Amino acid sequence: MRIRIIFSLKNRGSYVPFHHQYLLAQTIKGFILLGKNPAYTDYNHYNFSGLKGQIKISRKGLHFYSSKVTLVFSASDKDFIDYFTTVLFEQKEIMIGNMLLVPEAIEQEDPVVVCESVRFLCISPLVLIQSGFNDESGKRFILPEADEFSDLLYDSTIQRMEQSGRYTPAQLAEYYKFQIIPDQEYLSKIQSSHKKFARIYPVYDSDVKFEVRGYTFPFTLYAPVPVQQFIYENGLGYFTHKGFGMLDVAGSDVVKNPAESEETYVSAG
User: Fold this and answer.
1) What is the pTM for the complete model shown?
2) How far apart are the C-alpha atoms of 207 and 61, rounded to whole Å?
3) Distance between CA atoms of 245 and 234, rounded to whole angstroms?
4) Confidence of residue 138 (pLDDT cuts 50, 70, 90)
5) Residue 116's CB: how many other CB atoms inside 10 A?
6) What domains lie within the chain, and their CATH numbers?
7) In this prediction, what percent of the chain has a pLDDT beyond 70?
């Protein structure tokens, strides 16, 4: 289930860093704890986008000039989404960076039908390697065409599906088909224009900062339908509960703002 949370922006021209997922992750975690439901204290099976709206770019980051700002939030568990949004809408104001936001409305995204072959767009970067403080391995670059790229994402996906408790061992054993084919035309275009599809991003865990490499490009995923659906609702790769790995299905109308395309995300980073 995916929803679009709509906020009113009280101070137009305010800004957040280019990559502000860590600010959103801290705020979302704070609201989860604020609700004081022990069932969700350590819950991390959710995913979210960056803030979207009419922006201008400066050295400080992304300045928002629209009256409305949106956030796409997703999880397979509707009860969790209801719990989180209830706590969220009890707040009169929310500060993200120096943006003052007021929760206004929720729109449920139209369901997307997936099959065993889906072309995905990255709304936020994919993280392939689990990393932590003083660990440089998370910054290692892996070619998207390499088998290791698909293998790492497969391993993290099956691990997260198992941890969700929604799939039996027998079902997981059947989900062995998994292959990512990157859009070579897009990668060539990005490289020829001297832009990047892989960057280093900050991640915070218990207030400790470390860095990971994130990838942002269109690709086709070949995998069983339950795996495709899980990825669409919960994200792909590591640190999805910190705002990484959110995807959209190419050709769907979920991405209503051009700022949500992977091209804008890459150029802004």
Assistant:
1) 0.87
2) 22
3) 8
4) confident
5) 12
6) 2-108 (3.30.70.1890), 117-268 (3.30.70.1900)
7) 93
